[in-house]
Amino acid sequence: KAGVTQTPRYLIKTRGQQVTLSCSPISGHRSVSWYQQTPGQGLQFLFEYFSETQRNKGNFPGRFSGRQFSNSRSEMNVSTLELGDSALYLCASSLPGSGGSDSPLHFGNGTRLTVT
Amino acid sequence: GDSVTQMEGPVTLSEEAFLTINCTYTATGYPSLFWYVQYPGEGLQLLLKATKADDKGSNKGFEATYRKETTSFHLEKGSVQVSDSAVYFCALIRYGGATNKLIFGTGTLLAVQP
Fold first, then answer.
1. In angstroms, what separates the C-alpha of B31 from chain A's closest C-alpha?
2. Cα separations (Å) of B110 from B37, B66, B74?
């Protein structure tokens, strides 16, 4: 079974631009979460989607947005990029369920975004 | 709010040494607890989990016991290998919420020397 696939692996953008990252979950997984990983802040939760609906959101500005499609694939978008947005963005998928205890999260290898 | 505190790294050990990485948490209710591992250039992999007090999670020689009285979930391995070199993250999910929001510790870099 294929794992979580994130594209692209690497991305270089300029301040002020916008970017869209893509995540294809494991087949059958309907919950998709996004995390930002930086050396300074560590791993921080961005948002979670389940059945095309956002069911939880982290403490990030409105420039960060996401969506989920009917096939469970998800995209996240960052508008008006800032230097501080440079990070590894990780997507994780899981089966439906609450709390992760029944269905652990499976992570992709991430998209490395560099903002110059 | 909920939080996870891990020991600072890096932790440098010789092969076959005993490993302990400390993790404590603050959470309301009864969270599920996890250890994830991240190898260079890769995403996170679930190493082990425990969902209730006194549960012991184990995998690949690693173990951790959910201690509610001390709010801890320390990771241990009896004999580390060079291939165990990675960053280890302790994390929790609050029990009962319809969410998969993981709260992570800062991560501990483990370097095992031959």
1. 8
2. 10, 22, 14
Give the count of Cβ contacts less than 8 A between chain A and B: 76
pLDDT tens digits for B29-71?
888 999 999 998 889 999 999 988 999 999 999 999 999 999 9
**Closest CA relative to residue B88, chosen from B14, B34, B16:** B34
Pick the residue from chain B with its C-alpha nearest to A6. B43
Put simply, the answer to whether A42 touches B95 (Cβ < 8 Å) is: no
Distances (CA, A) of B64 to A102, B36, B73: 18, 12, 6
Per the model's pLDDT, the better-predicted residue between A28 and A6 turns out to be A6
Condensed to tens digits (0 to 9), the pLDDT of residues A69-107 reads 999 999 999 999 999 999 999 999 988 655 455 678 899
Closest residue, chain A, to B94 (C-alpha): A99
How far apart CA A36 and CA A83 sit, in angstroms, is 14
Distances (CA, A) of A26 to A90, B4, B91: 14, 28, 22
